[in-house]
Amino acid sequence: MSLIQIYQCFCDSTRLRILSLLNQGELCVCHFQEIMGEPQVKVSKHLAYLRTRGLVTARKEANWVVYGIPSKPSAELSANLACLQDCVREDPVFRRDLERLGELASSIAENSPVCCSPKPSSRLKTATP
To answer: pTM higher than 0.85 for the full model?
Structure first.
């Protein structure tokens, strides 16, 4: 993986938010929607972009796709993800994302990936800021 590929992926705030969240563990599209307050189409588009460039992996679990950071990321990707985590600590958007992830962590662990069923849509509406 080249630095050019990594930096091309890093030049978008939505992709940076996704990568920051994935640094904490695997998530599916509905988790990103709930945490970030972004529509499924936008999240999926950015995940596909990151996936085709090797920055995220995807695995199918039942009817859902769960995304994560590669299990053996390149040294360049590891260094840049570590830098991202250091750099976003003071940014209110990234902090809010991580706080929302923390609030949802037990729910995600208990229900994942069942949470992706159509029923949670009412839950998503109440969770958006």
So the answer is: no
